[in-house]
Amino acid sequence: MIGDRILGVVLLLLAVVYGWEAAMFPEPFGGSEAVGPETFPLILAVILGLSSIYLLVRPDEDEEWPHMKMLAELGFVLLILAIFTLMLQPVGFIPATTLMVSVLCWRMGAKPLPSVATGVGSAVVVYVLFNFLLELHLPAGLLKLSGG
Hints:
Number of helices: 6
Shape: flat
Strand content: under 5%
Structural class: mainly alpha
Helix content: over 70%
Order of helices and strands: HHHHHH
């Protein structure tokens, strides 16, 4: 119970600092917009702040630490995310995201073929949304080398 409250305080402080920093983003060229560069970070700060307050108000009564198997799975997820981060620039968003999502889906119990289909589908959809609809270019990596 006390551990949840300590975590709640730490995360609430993080949310406040994160939100404060997000609010300090410079105004975009051409004037203020309804959705600017600070919008998404501010939304994240609010969600983190509300979650932190929930931890403070309603901490978990059963304060049992996760088993070693669960900690190993969490470590594996962190390893996959680190590999994804290192692969993003050299190989590009689509291959790196496909690999990350596929492996994580597989680790959560999905069969290999649906895992790969989910990885490819989500990578392509997010790439198209960001590059063509939002005009926020993600690393092309190998696609750039192949002329795509």
